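Q: I have 186 residues here and want to know how they pack in 3D. Can you give me a structure?
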Amino acid sequence: MLTTKEVANKLNNVRYGEEDKFTELFKQAKEDNIVIVFGYSDDGVEFRGAIDDELSAYNETTYSITKDGLILNECDQWDCPYYTKKLNDPSNIQLKIFEEKENYFWTYEIDIPYETFDVVEERSGSRTSEIEKFCRGIVFSLNDIPETNLKLKAVKELIASYKMKCNNVEDECINKLKTVWPECFK
């Protein structure tokens, strides 16, 4: 059984456009419920492994993910009430996509444990070629998504409210939260 760290290590410094050389790794990741996310072109995000999809992306795009995978709009309209209800379900985890951050064209963040890997690109100059970072991909396991994310969202909201009440004294806020929800700090 693969770990997210093993997958990230195998993909680290993969050259842009050569990701498809890892089809066997992607198949194994699918069997182990692992998701690989990386950028493609100037407006695309690729999902491989337990999620296999190609979607549009731009700066600060957010996709909602559950233990079952991506939440996609199956309706013909963006204001579909069914889709909106699914998006607003507090058990979702958010995958956030950032453009041109930390010397990468694409970076990703998600609210569960994940590993990172670099996709690099060869840039040719007049006489030399140079390897540059294209994106910092991520690898995570759908198994790490809690059955319900309600408690996590509630804790985050409480932290924000305590920070305001505590004048941003984080230690005091965290100590108060530990008394309210000690199981969240184990």
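Q: Anything worth noting?
A: The first strand starts at residue 14 and ends at 15. Helices lie at 4-11, 23-31, 81-87, 150-165, 170-180.
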